[in-house]
Amino acid sequence: MILLIEINEIKIEGKHCIGLKVLMPDAPPLIMVRGERGVLFCGYLNPEAAEKLHMAAAIVRGVASLEEALEKPVVYVTKQAEALGATVGMSGKDALRQFL
C-alpha cells in the first residue's frame, strides 16, 4: 500500500510545526508546513486567494518533500507574512521561524 498522505511534526527552535505531504496522481506532491501564525506552501497555493483570505503565507516552488520546502528560497509572501517578518529569498525554514 502506498502512503498517500504523510504528516510529520517539525521542530524549529523548540517549537512545533505540522508538515503535510499529499501525493498527487501524475504530478508533484502538495507540500504544506503550518506554523502557529502562518503557513509555508508549495506552488499549489494561489497567491491571490491567500491575499484575499488575509493568510500569512510564504510560497516555495519546485519541492517534492518537506525537507526541500524548508531549504528552498521563498518566492512569494503575502502582506500578512511580510508583516510577521517573512521575505522573498529567505529559506522556507526562516520564513516558518517568523510564523512561530
Shape: globular
Radius of gyration: 13 Å
Q: Give the CATH class.
A: Alpha Beta
Major β-sheet annotation: 6 strands, mixed
| CATH architecture annotation | 2-Layer Sandwich
What is the first-to-last residue Cα distance? 35 Å
Structural class: alpha+beta
Q: What share of residues is helical?
A: 10-25%
Strand order of the largest sheet: 1-2-3-4-5-6
Provide the low-confidence segments as ranges: none
- At CATH level 3, the topology is Hypothetical protein Ta1206 fold
Q: Note the beta-strand portion.
A: 25-35%
How do the SSEs run, as a string of H and E? EEEEHEHEHH
Summary, kept brief:
By secondary structure, the protein is of the alpha+beta class. It has helices at 47-52, 66-71, 79-83, 92-98; strands at residues 5-12, 15-24, 27-34, 39-41, 57-59, 76-77.
Output the keywords.
alpha+beta; 6 strands; 100 residues
SSE order and pairing:
Elements: E1 5-12, E2 15-24, E3 27-34, E4 39-41, H1 47-52, E5 57-59, H2 66-71, E6 76-77, H3 79-83, H4 92-98
Parallel strand pairs: 4-5
Antiparallel strand pairs: 1-2, 2-3, 3-4, 5-6
